[in-house]
Amino acid sequence: MDIALCTIISKLRIHQFLALYESIIKNRMAAHLFVFCVDRESYDLLKKMGISKAVIIDFSKLEDKTLINLRKERKIYEYCWTIKPVVIEYIFKKHSKIKKILYVDSDIYFFSDPLSIINRIKKWSVIVTTHRSSKNINGGFVCFKRDKIGLEALKWWKRQCFNWCYDYFDNGNFGDQGHLDRLKKHYRNIYYLEHPGFNVASWNEHLYQIKTYDDRVYVDNVRMVFYHFSGLRMINKTDYIMLWQFEPKGYVYGHYINVLRKKIEEIENVSPGFTDNIFK
């Protein structure tokens, strides 16, 4: 396999990673999986849980003086946004046989395999998806190729994230995403993936017809690839809220919430009391 998939987690998102991991395994994705833990608690728990089909990395061991200083000045989720290009770059440097890397947020859940579609795209160095409700790029899913343009674009993105990566809007920026919007001004081969099954989310699902047949989810009559459950937070071991006005309903949300409940139970079986951290 020459493809890798990676994500970044903290102890607050470990139940969502376990849901993501389950969806990757169920869809039999032919990709190496890397998980970067930004705190020791998440790293130790995953090791204890025996996650066998992923490389689990304690990110603190990769931090240099610059990253240590950035961690001190930014909120933990801002820091996770900041290091997206760092972890992609790390995989490229450490694993010469990997030619393509897909970064996904931990609150993504796959309903079918994205690689069958990614592998059909002929000319690209970077693949991005927009919010669909706007033309702005969403940073929850981005792919880089090991070629001249892809590696240069990755380094550029890293520099921008080091300079500015915060949870408010400023001069077209928000987190890591505004920088991605400017990639096409600097580089060729930035491919905007318009497949309706990619990056379905609360902010765009009203644009589609979502139906389920035999536990397969369809978006406008094509298979849903993944749903991005941004804004969904568990407030205890069974209940949840949305951080903005949106009413979760239908099979997609029902299935995901049930999976999260199951993952919280699995965590508690291994480390009683651990999930109390999630709900603070």
UniProtKB/TrEMBL annotation:
Asked if the keyword Lipoprotein belongs to this entry, the reply reads no
The molecular function terms of the Gene Ontology recorded here are: transferase activity
Which ranges carry the Nucleotide-diphospho-sugar transferase domain?
A: 31-228
Report TM segments. none
Give the range the annotation lists for the signal sequence: none
Keyword flag Transferase: yes
Please report a single Pfam family linked to this protein. Answer: Nucleotid_trans
Q: Which UniProt keywords are listed?
A: Transferase
Q: Which domain of life is it from?
A: Bacteria
Protein's name in the database: Nucleotide-diphospho-sugar transferase
Organism from which the protein derives: Lutispora thermophila DSM 19022
